[in-house]
Backbone:
């Protein structure tokens, strides 16, 4: 990826300023003297640096805090509207979703495009257009946009901003970041459509108190985004998180990967639809039939979730069964990684109240007791916005990244 926009780049990347900006961002409101104590700089040096940050608009004075004796110190806080970022979610259903967020990942404005195809030139054009539309709609100057994050399905080289292979988009070796940077002259960061929301949930959402979190997305596929110690775990080739291809039953249904009985074949949307249609064929009476106009081909996950939310007995049974299989898969993850939080995302999170009960039952009864008692299994905090907020979070984490140096050598 390019350096963050020139003018901002040198400024933000300065080590002490980056440290101070991070302290203010994570612990505001905070006084200059508290910052000085934390980073062992003189109060004068801290004032000098905070003055620069105030001048650039990143932080601001909040008014006096409390003090036992003497003059009350002026407190500093992050100005979340100092700059903005764009988050783009390339969904698996020919849709580009995009949002502008502030520096705390709050959505300012969002838009959606439907694509006629997923040819990379169509997708790049759509992204360029949607960024301009967002900037126009928000009334912001494009110079205020510090970067664009993109969450995309597929195998990626996130360092090079390249989609190596994506079955959903039918892409091979597409230099996505470079193509968009050429058009917009704004730095671009990409990651997968499961890693990006995982990061957002850990930084700002359902797991913001946790350092280790797993985000599970149930949709056309079944994937996991793994956050360890606040960082995305990619694995050596970037393929980490292919949770859906955990084999549960070697004689089970054939999976897209060529194996049999992968968890995905029992939990992802195709399986939910299959179990539903089979049940109805066997004579189950359900609201689903009515919602699908008695046509098997019209049964969608959306309809099944809608019926379940209306307490349709069979729809609830299908969701609970899905939860049972998902729980079996999660037992291995809980035993393997001892996560603090598991967040369930994707469209299925709208029926989380029904789904999560059997999931938790299976995990508590089958996983080892210490990690099973520890883990919180919850629904996505961001729901349908998890993808765009996740993509924006990729950029925010980069902006606020502290340069990698040995801190003891510079103090
Ligand atoms: Zn598989």
Residues:
């Amino acid at each position: 990826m390019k350096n963050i926009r020139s003018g901002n780049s040198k400024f933000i990347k300065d080590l002490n300023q980056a440290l101070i900006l991070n302290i203010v961002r994570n612990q505001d409101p905070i006084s200059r003297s508290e910052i000085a104590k934390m980073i062992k700089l003189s109060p004068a040096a801290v004032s000098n640096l905070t003055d620069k940050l105030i001048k650039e608009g990143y932080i601001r004075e909040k008014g006096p805090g409390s003090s036992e004796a003497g003059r009350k110190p002026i407190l500093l806080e992050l100005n979340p509207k100092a700059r903005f970022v764009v988050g783009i979610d390339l969904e698996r259903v020919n849709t580009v979703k995009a949002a502008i967020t502030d520096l705390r990942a709050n959505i300012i404005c969002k838009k959606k495009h439907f694509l006629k195809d997923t040819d990379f030139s169509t997708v790049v054009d759509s992204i360029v257009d949607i960024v301009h539309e967002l900037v126009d709609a928000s009334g912001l100057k494009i110079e205020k946009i510090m970067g664009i994050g993109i969450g995309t399905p597929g195998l990626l080289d996130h360092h090079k901003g390249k989609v190596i292979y994506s079955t959903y988009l039918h892409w091979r070796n597409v230099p996505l970041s470079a193509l968009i940077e050429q058009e917009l002259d704004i730095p671009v960061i990409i990651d997968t459509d499961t890693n990006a929301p995982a990061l957002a949930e850990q930084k700002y959402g359902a797991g913001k108190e946790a350092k280790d979190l797993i985000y599970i997305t149930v949709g056309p596929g079944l994937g996991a985004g793994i956050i360890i110690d606040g960082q995305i775990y990619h694995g050596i080739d970037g393929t980490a998180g292919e949770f859906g291809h955990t084999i549960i039953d070697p004689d089970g249904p054939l999976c897209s990967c060529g194996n049999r009985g992968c968890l995905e074949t029992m939990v992802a949307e195709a399986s939910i639809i299959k179990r539903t249609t089979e049940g109805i064929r066997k004579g189950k009476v359900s609201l689903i039939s009515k919602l699908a106009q008695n046509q098997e081909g019209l049964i969608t996950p959306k309809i099944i979730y809608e019926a379940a939310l209306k307490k349709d007995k069979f729809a609830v049974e299908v969701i609970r069964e899905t939860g049972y299989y998902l729980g079996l898969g999660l037992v291995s993850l809980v035993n393997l990684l001892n996560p603090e939080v598991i967040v369930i995302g994707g469209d299925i999170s709208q029926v989380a109240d029904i789904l999560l009960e059997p999931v938790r039952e299976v995990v508590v009864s089958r996983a080892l007791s210490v990690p099973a008692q520890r883990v919180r299994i919850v629904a996505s905090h961001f729901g349908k916005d998890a993808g765009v907020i996740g993509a924006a979070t990729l950029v925010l984490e980069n902006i606020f990244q502290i340069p990698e140096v040995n801190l003891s050598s510079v103090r």
